[in-house]
């Protein structure tokens, strides 16, 4: 099983979330954990590959989480809106 590492950028990005958004984030993280354990994707998770080693999954209709896969580790990079994700991908490349 892969190790999960939460990066400081992820922690910074969720600081501005409202309490309701944080609750939805927790639910999405639980679905993501279930996916890692069972290898079955929940339909609401919307897990997809968006780069060579970069994936995203859905918190809700507006918010997403970026995950970077390296070797045996998954890095939680960023949580934010579509614009936040686009900005990260632009700066990343």
At a glance:
With 93 residues, the protein is of the alpha+beta class.
Fold and architecture overview:
There is one protein chain. The longest helix has 20 residues, at 19-38. The protein is an alpha+beta fold. A 5-stranded mixed beta sheet has the order 1-5-4-3-2. The protein has a single domain (3-92), classed as RelE-like (YaeB-like fold, 2-Layer Sandwich). The protein is 42% helix and 30% strand. The protein contains 3 helices and 5 strands; from the N terminus they run βααββββα. The model has no long low-confidence stretch (mean pLDDT 91).
Brief descriptors of the model:
93 residues; alpha+beta; YaeB-like fold; five-stranded mixed sheet; 3 helices; 30% strand
Rg from alpha-carbon coordinates: 12 Å
How many β-strand stretches?
5
Q: Report the biggest beta sheet as strand number plus sense, adding barrel if it closes.
A: 5 strands, mixed
Number of domains: 1
Q: How many alpha or pi helices? A: 3
């Amino acid at each position: 099983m892969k190790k999960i590492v939460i990066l400081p950028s992820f922690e910074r990005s969720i600081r501005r979330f409202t309490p309701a958004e944080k609750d939805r984030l927790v639910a999405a993280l639980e679905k993501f954990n279930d996916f890692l354990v069972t290898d079955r994707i929940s339909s609401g998770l919307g897990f997809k590959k968006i780069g060579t080693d970069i994936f995203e999954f859905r918190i809700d209709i507006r918010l997403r989480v970026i995950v970077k896969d390296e070797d045996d580790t998954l890095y939680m990079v960023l949580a934010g809106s579509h614009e936040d994700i686009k900005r990260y991908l632009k700066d990343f490349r």
